[in-house]
Specification:
Strand order of the largest sheet: 1-2-7-4
Number of domains: 2
Number of strands: 12
Shape: elongated
Distance between the termini: 74 Å
Structural class: alpha+beta
Largest sheet: 4 strands, antiparallel
Strand content: 5-15%
Length: 424
């Protein structure tokens, strides 16, 4: 089978397996490898220390091959559209409910997509006769997936750093399969004729020229375009997490703080989180490419919405029969198979306390009282902050009494500081 026929067969198999889009590129240094290196050197990765590992492999997927295996020559890039529907505004704005990023409404997509990559690799090995395995990654390994999604024409990188495909928006899950076969490669998008600043200039906050692409249906090719002058995503971010277009500072990002780190959330950011307890889709929700998308049911069963995890009532997880914010085993059982487990129980309780503080309802005081005695110090500190918000808004005596009592019994200096600040 020649390379064109082989590539066609693999793309057909990818679609049969449930992938919505498939592109192929040569395994070589990533188009924006230099910018990634500068971004890492600037300390943007925060607690995401895994981004600092295997940096050269991340910048050049050809290096992912094991020493004893054939050299990798091709990268197969795959995407699944996980858009389901838009949440009604009355639910989104209900402060008693927690908002969860749409990708986590169902099961953990890694567990569903990874086996499909193995199947795709097996199909390719059947055609080519290869005995070694390709490298299958679902955004958990050292690969710049969005760079390769743009390189293969799956979509363009928007100013919010998400991969956007016109007609489908940015609700895309990306995966890659790097293999030693030589395949027929998709043409790269047309180069932007305007000169872009060096990565160092971008990191300094200088707006870079839009490198986006859009589909030209009449000519059947990608051309320059993309976000144009639109800055809705940058303007809408409540924590101003974008240092500029295409440049996210995770240390100010709601998704980073509610998922990727177990540290205390900075005081100055908490009030901007609203009721978002796991991730944040604001920069996607305001994107014009995501407007008026038709509701759909994802092909993969695991990506379909689990109603119990959609927009949970914040206080439900404190109930005696469902204490999943308070008890580790209840948390593991309630979120079995969910990506929410990545934040861990203490991290989610911390997030929920921030949401309860932003709600600032006296109805939350009994739940916060339980969180104030949690075995983990980070949730205790955020419970104190939330109680302080209720005291400040309602002059609520029971909340004030809880804080005063905790001041005499709390052993952790950081939590004591939170209590003192709340009492002020």
């Amino acid at each position: 089978m020649d390379t064109t026929a082989l590539t066609h067969a693999i793309k057909q198999e990818a679609h049969r397996l449930g992938f919505d889009f498939c592109g192929v590129a040569p395994a070589q240094r990533a188009p924006h490898a230099d910018f990634c290196a500068q971004w890492l050197a600037a300390g943007r990765s925060g607690d995401m220390t895994y981004l600092q590992r295997h940096v050269e492999k991340r910048l050049n997927p050809a290096l992912l091959a094991e020493p004893a295996d054939p050299a990798f020559k091709s990268m197969i890039v795959l995407a699944i559209d996980y858009h389901r529907f838009e949440l009604p505004q009355e639910i989104r704005m209900d402060p008693s409910r927690g908002l969860i990023a749409a990708y986590a409404w169902g099961d953990d997509y890694h567990a569903w997509i990874r086996p499909l990559l193995y199947e795709l690799d097996a199909a390719l090995r059947t055609h080519s006769g290869r005995t070694s395995r390709g490298k299958a990654l679902v955004d958990t390994g050292p690969v710049l997936e969005r760079d390769w999604a743009q390189r293969t024409g799956i979509g363009f990188t928007g100013k919010n750093c998400c991969t956007i495909r016109p007609g489908h928006g940015s609700w895309l899950l990306l995966a890659t399969l790097t293999v030693p076969e030589t395949l027929t490669y998709d043409p790269p998008p047309a180069p932007n004729p305007r000169q872009e600043p060096e990565p160092a200039a971008i990191l300094a906050g200088i707006e870079r020229t839009d490198p986006g692409i859009r589909w030209h249906s009449q000519e059947g090719a990608w051309e320059t375009g993309g976000c144009g002058r639109c800055t809705r995503c940058l303007d809408a971010c409540p924590t101003q997490a974008f240092a500029g277009p295409y440049h996210l500072d995770p240390n100010r990002c709601i998704a980073y703080w509610t998922i990727e780190t177990q540290q205390s959330i900075p005081l100055a950011l908490r009030r901007h989180f609203g009721n978002r307890i796991f991730g944040c889709d604001i920069c996607q929700e305001v994107c014009p490419y995501n407007r008026r998308l038709a509701p759909r049911t994802p092909a993969l069963a695991g990506l379909q919405t689990n109603a119990a995890r959609l927009t949970p009532y914040l206080l439900d997880g404190f109930a005696v029969d469902t204490p999943y914010w308070l008890d580790a085993s209840a948390f593991a059982a309630h979120f079995r198979g969910s990506p929410i487990k990545r934040a861990k129980r203490a991290g989610m309780l911390r997030n929920v306390c921030v949401a309860l503080g932003n709600w600032a309802s006296p109805l939350a005081v009994p739940a916060l009282a339980r969180a104030l005695s949690d075995p983990e110090s980070i949730p205790r500190g955020h419970a104190a902050w939330a109680l302080g918000q209720i005291v400040a808004r309602h002059r609520h005596q029971p909340a004030l009494t809880l804080l005063q009592s905790a001041l005499t019994s709390e052993p952790d200096p950081a939590v004591l500081n939170e209590i003192r600040l709340a009492l002020r």
